[in-house]
Description:
Elements: E1 3-10, E2 17-24, E3 31-36, H1 47-54, E4 58-63, H2 86-104, E5 110-115, H3 117-129, E6 135-139, H4 146-163, H5 170-176, H6 197-205, H7 215-228, H8 231-234, E7 243-248, H9 258-269, E8 275-280, H10 293-306
Parallel strand pairs: 3-4, 3-5, 5-6, 6-7, 7-8
Antiparallel strand pairs: 1-2, 2-4
Helix pairs in contact: 2-3, 3-7, 4-7
Amino acid sequence: MSTRRDLKVASNDGVTSLKVVVWQPEGDIRAILQLSHGMVEHIERYTEFGEFLADKGILVVGNDHLGHGESIVSKDKLGYFCDNNPSEVLVDDLHKIGEEIRKEYPGIPYFIFGHSMGSFIVRNYIAKYGEGLKGAVICGTGDLPNSKIKPGLALIKTIKCFKGKMYLSKFVDSLVIGDNDKYFKDSEYKSWLSKDEEKVKKYYADPLCGYMFTLNGYQTLVELIIKNNDAARRARVPKDLPLLIVSGDECCLGEFGKGVKRVYEKYKAAGIKDVTCRLYQHDRHEILNETDRDVVFADIYDWINSKL
């Protein structure tokens, strides 16, 4: 059996205390996995995954990002990161948490995992702080070209000039996110998130999930993606860092596998020696909440175990 403890770590924004959760093995710790969650959700949703790995000797640590979960100073700050360079602050927050955990558990092999928006953060992280990592898991990611998103960034900045950083724009939300459920209108389970109806219902019943990003939030998200598109930044990823890229083959963010494969090819082209890509048949965006998540959990564990 594993145990759980909650921590508070000061964000690099200079204002916020980040909620951090640690799922700890009862016995020896064989490895550490740090989690970076997705957009408009929170780290509690990773409890099942965290407990699964902790029961197998892997300590799991994850935080609520700025603007998410319990890492907010007030509810009106949901979907707002910070004023000064938020796309870098998010990356630096992961590093700060990781450094504190490493001090507590020195010498333990350290891995990182990012889902969806969290994958965009982690992809920036491994270009900046990849040295010393044992491996990185990139989950539910996408490959969005600058030609599509840079005009959107310019529009967000323009609206922000008139409406302010905290403004909730239905237009921007529809432009960036859109109606992803439209791809599944004719299926038995109509959500783009997962085929597991109970998981989907729980998501939409959660007040800390599914809310609208502020303009500050959307600007940050787009800036993270643009930075990932920079080949020079990607070239700074350590060539010997093992990467596992996983997604559902019906994840619309990953263009039903096509975008995920492009991400894989870009890392291969950047000279990364050990890159693995796995697409799970008929799975959608949240493979950790899918009907076959036991298979996904086991595959991720086996991959981590293979790198020890």
